[in-house]
Amino acid sequence: MASRSADPRDSRESRNGSPQLDSVSLAIIEQLQEDGRRPYAAIGKAVGLSEAAVRQRVQKLLDQGVMQIVAVTDPLTVGFRRQAMVGIHVEGDVESAAEALTAMPECEYVVMTAGSFDLMVEVVCEDDDHLLDVINKRIRALPGVRSTESFVYLKLKKQTYMWGTR
Known about the structure:
It is built from five helices and four strands. By secondary structure, it is α+β, with helices and mostly antiparallel strands. Strands 2-3-1-4 form a four-stranded antiparallel sheet. Helix 1 packs across helix 2 and helix 2 (40-47) crosses helix 3. The longest helix has 13 residues, at 51-63. The two termini are 18 Å apart.
């Protein structure tokens, strides 16, 4: 890849307040999605920057909330044997219900949707009893939750975070 400059305008904000990323920052993100432990020197070589420039860019991307660097586990191997997607119908303020769900550690993914459900929530639990407790005693007890529909995972065929920056 051709050498690129470490332009300080690498991630200006767009009109809506979210960072606007240049091609170098996007390439750094793609490198880290392939291997989150890839050394800055190797990333620099791939994107045409020095190790120090890559380190600065990565820190800026982290500080702006553009990305996180985390270890992704297989839930089954760390004791979470039951996963489900839960569709939720809410009466009234959807955002307050979504906020309450984000505070629950079992809710890994909370999305406000347009369609059959107001919210879709991925729940990761230790077993069926734990899942029942989360849905019946905690989710359904939230103010405004009118109904839920659970989609229990039988087998996870694909889970990836490699969508890159298309």
